[in-house]
Amino acid sequence: FNEKPLATPATRKLARDLGVDLRRVPPTGPAGRVTKDDVRALEAPE
Amino acid sequence: MKTYDAIVIGAGPGGYPCAIRLAQLKQKVLCIEKENVGGVCLNWGCIPSKALISAAHLYEKSQAGAAMGIKVSGVELDANKMQDWKEGIVKKLTGGVGSLLKGNGADVVNGTATVVGPKRVDVTRADGSVEQFEATKAIVIATGSTTIEIPTFKFDGDTIIGAKEAVSLRRVPKRLMVIGGGVIGLELGMVYQAFGAELIVVEALPELLTGVDPDCTKIVERKILKRGGTIHKNAKALGYEKQKDGSVGVKIQADGKEQTIVVDTVLVAVGMRPSSKGLGLEKVGVTVDQRGFVPTDKFCRTNVPSIYAIGDVSGPPLLAHKATKEGEIAAEVIAGHKAEKDWVAIPGAIFTDPEIATVGLTEAEAKAKGLEVSIGKFPFSVLGKAMAMNETEGFVKIVADKKTKQVLGVHIVGPEASTMISEASLSLEMAAFLEDLSLTIHPHPTLGESLMEAAAHAMGAAIHIANR
Ligand SMILES: Cc1cc2nc3c(=O)[nH]c(=O)nc-3n(C[C@H](O)[C@H](O)[C@H](O)COP(=O)(O)OP(=O)(O)OC[C@H]3O[C@@H](n4cnc5c(N)ncnc54)[C@H](O)[C@@H]3O)c2cc1C
């Protein structure tokens, strides 16, 4: 339960579609949640 | 030989949504069903049982209006009429599934499927003829499960029955014994109990509804006893003898002592067995575990890459919504989309009286994982809406991580528990904290307020009950 990053189902799906490992995404959302923008930010540079 | 992109075996809540989703994703799909579309759930499981439960609830409520000043006399059940009504619902829904499959462009074939190769399926029709089909991409096993029969209580379709017959009884047994105090046994047992049957529950384990928060189970047990029922735990049903008058004497062993209980009908509800035998799976090298379940990975794939398994046949929990979700995931994976089983928790709803619904970890499970927990609890007995409904039994219990305050599990016993658990499920999926639930404005007066208050209670801030 707690090893999983805090992220909503939609964010989890986005990460999957972009091939981003959620555990690598630095969270900026409220109370440490990973947001969609966090996922996109990590995906962008590559 | 006809060729499809994908072939789905079984048209239950796993198979038919899988076929529909495949068709939506522009895959040429065949769905094979040996009985009726809709599977166990529509034909003799979820829907029929819920129809009877709602009739039983109305029957009971209609007689319990005295406290509200409503006097009713001569309330009668016409079991034939009730069955006709239920069968009408089943017909409407299965007809709907048929049209949905067709409307989406999925082909349906009636017959028994056998897997004869990693991408080949034979279908035996009712007339004995065999047709061959080929899948270019995948075969999906969605064959579900069937009732477990115990050798000493062979079904005779009348006195010794399974769930399938129990949802179709056109009479109310005077004395009903239920062997197996699980979800199906208690749901159906309580239906006939509400209609006046004397209910006797025989459970081999020390508790009814194993795995459910025992605080919740207790409330339902109390109701069974209050209505004059009997519960034998740690008890084994050994066998039975038919009496001259058509009743049966069932020999049970409880606490080391043997006794005979005379009843009119015995419902055997000790569980469901996966339908994985005789499908040809062994021949094509698909792994089947000891219990008969077909293990799959997070993409619903078996060990044979072209063969997928979903729903009851792929393992517990044996629930319709789990089957449907896996059906959608398998379809998306087959169509080349990125999908996987990534849910946080699968909710469970138990339609006893009162209902129990649960999602996530129980208090005991969280502690077993070594987590320190905060517990919040709010009883319906102090909730205005529950009082107005005259249904005040039960409570909402929330289990949260003590340090982070993340919600780990929600357990509800009481009116509309099955409806309220959806908000709890969303909370778990969204990784909600106790504050997320307690800071969300819930309309007043509603049953849902109890969730908000239970979350507040876990933080020592409930308004309508004392905080510890
Ligand atoms: C009395 C009762 C009440 C229930 N209530 C609930 C409830 O309230 N909520 C809930 O979530 N779940 C409930 N369940 C469980 C639910 O019915 C199952 O979890 C669900 O039906 C599983 O779906 P499935 O698609 O995996 O399999 P099934 O519904 O079992 O469907 C499998 C289909 O495959 C067909 N089939 C099998 N083998 C072959 C073959 N070789 N060729 C062609 N076709 C084949 C079968 O005929 C069947 O139609 C209940 C079950 C029972 C018995």
From TrEMBL, chain B:
Annotated Gene3D superfamilies: 3.30.390.30, FAD/NAD(P)-binding domain
Cofactor: FAD
Keyword Oxidoreductase in record: yes
EC top class, as a word: oxidoreductase
The UniProt record lists the keyword Transmembrane: no
Residue ranges occupied by any FAD/NAD(P)-binding domain in the UniProt entry: 4-327
Domain Pyridine nucleotide-disulphide oxidoreductase dimerisation: 346-455
Any one GO molecular-function label of the UniProt entry: dihydrolipoyl dehydrogenase (NADH) activity
The entry's keywords: Disulfide bond, FAD, Flavoprotein, NAD, Oxidoreductase, Redox-active center
Pfam families from the UniProt entry: Pyr_redox_2 (PF07992), Pyr_redox_dim (PF02852)
EC number: 1.8.1.4
Comment on bound cofactor: Binds 1 FAD per subunit.
Catalyzed reactions: N(6)-[(R)-dihydrolipoyl]-L-lysyl-[protein] + NAD(+) = N(6)-[(R)-lipoyl]-L-lysyl-[protein] + NADH + H(+)
Note: The active site is a redox-active disulfide bond.
Family, similarity comment: Belongs to the class-I pyridine nucleotide-disulfide oxidoreductase family.
Protein name: Dihydrolipoyl dehydrogenase
Source organism of this protein record: Sorangium atrum
